[in-house]
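Q: For a teaching session next week I want to show students how multiple molecules come together into a single three-dimensional assembly. I've collected the sequence lines for a complex. Could you give me the predicted structure tokens for the whole thing so I can convert them for display?
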Amino acid sequence: MILGFLSVIGIILLFFRHRPENRNKYQRPASSEKLFAQVILASQPQILKLWEDGDQFIKKNGMTCNDEILFDQSVGRSYYQCQPHFWQCYWAGGIRKEPALKIDLFGQTFHVRAKPSFQPILKYSPYPRFYEILKGPFQGLNFHYGVLVELTLDEVPDMTWPIVLTDSCRDVYLPERIYGYGKVDPKKNDQDFLWDNFDRKIFIDKFYVSNQQVNEWRILNGEPDKVVTDRATWSHPAILNLTEQKNYCSFFGKKVLEAKMFDAATMTPSDIKNPLPDRVSRPQTPWQRDIGKSFLGMSQINPDYQLTPLDCQLAQVKGCQEKYFTTDSVTWMGMNFALGFYPESLPNPIEPKKNLKLSSKFLPPESPLHELGVLSNWQGQLEANMPIAFRCYEEVSL
Amino acid sequence: MIIYFLLAIMNLANADPTWKWSNAIKIVEKHEFYLDNEIIIKPKNSWQTLFAVVYSDSSLKTFKDCIYYRVPGDGPGILKLKTITANIKCDEYLYQPGEKEWKNLKAVQYSVQNNLLSISLTNEQFQIERWEVPLFNIFVHPEPKALMSSAEYRSPKVFYLTPHKGDLRVRPQGAIQLADRQICHRISEDCVEQEPSTCTQCTGGWYEIPNGCAQGPKYCGSIECGLKNKPACRRGMKYQKTQTTFSCRENHSFAYCAKGLNIECQGNLPYCL
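A: Of course. Below is the structure for the complete assembly, covering every listed component.
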């Protein structure tokens, strides 16, 4: 009885015992510099969320920054990710009246904010910028494109921490495996052109290069007069001639996407888990091996076929509503816009005259050009009646 | 504001230099004999370079904080910090006065593990001061995986530059770049890497001339591979499923030219004719 009573008292006392705090982890730093550093470092997840997933901060009624970036229902949310103009809008108060990021640390709420430290870009607005685009690499800083920003803390007001945000939203890795190029005759037992990218780190742009991205290049390249000022078209694909397309990609250490890589990114492998398959299939669309089973094949058979919203999400063809930066057409490896949408420039060292994907929103769904592996020729010049988009790829050599 | 001024006053008595080291790019010149967390006791009365922290300042120039230690012997130990430009060896300043010094030390221990730099100073009253610095910019390239971006593969998502007091105008200096046609990845004919790749520093990308090795020699710039009189393009060495090493004269299936052109070998390098 007594032993039992003492045990209960012991347990209660143990519960209320003094617990030594982990001083290193939770102690508030004595110096203002160290406090500043710890709060800024603790804000990294919120800073990254604002940069990479800016679209999640936009409410249903959009944002109030029409002199910086437009909110348009025909533009997918991906447009606002890793988007310097969204960053400018947010910190200028276009998303929230009080944009400071709140960090709870050491029993206090701190307020982190970006500073308008950078020169205005007069083509955009007369106001100071909350960022500056950098073209790297710098010693020890391995990036081609970075966004320099400065962070401050309301509670330690005279300190500033410059950081560089990288573009982690732009491209996507092409897995290392055996790929096929072009169409093959299903009646023959010939695999035609095979290749592989083992030991190569290839990353492909998810979307077409946009007018807004080309504007950044124009400014960095000292050509501000060529900037597209109509914000309504910033999310649209940039229409350049082939030489300019190559110059744009090369400026950021990249190349214009090649035809064989486009095929690799769009032709879904039969067995994704096996990188060394015995046979490499050539599906006719990214979502159906046999085009006859897709809405494109049905349109060829039935002239009265009515396009559905789902059809237009998979491939924007003639008759579909225009949309930009949408992800509904995403392929097996993460690229968008395989068939339909815009004609796309695809330089082709295997067959140099087959360098253009013509499948686009300018052709009706029954067009036989809406098929993977079907390419046409482009002389590389701008054509008034046919805007040709492009995207870049990068092979990283470390 | 009141809290800030109080902290600023307290700071005068507590000059821990590590608050700005989270922007470190790398830790270099680490002492070759001292183990992590070992109490440094030898050689007595000598100055030793413990390590150096390389970081970029606000204008993206690189500097180095050298950390020296006078091992206790006849007198107590002294820890010393000197900031120099990154391309100079710390040993050149071993006997020069530091910008900051911590005297009357009984023991010093330090370690760099899992991107955390720890330093522990014990004074003659056996009071311990501990500095711990997370090294956010130090980056180990991950294995690329599905849906990963090139930015995530090559670098941290955020680079921390040097924090500063007051209204310092950030003016990035020129980027380091290699000119076109300069070799950026030297690979010998027998597939041995002569120097690590510096191709990410090329002004406008780079190209490879395949030579039948897992990695071929690479040059800055661009060429229209596969066209007449140009180097052939890389095709790969596993799609054949036959062998792992290739020689241009015996089997040039690791490269290709545009349809209608033939491969001609110049040494082990395939060209299109």
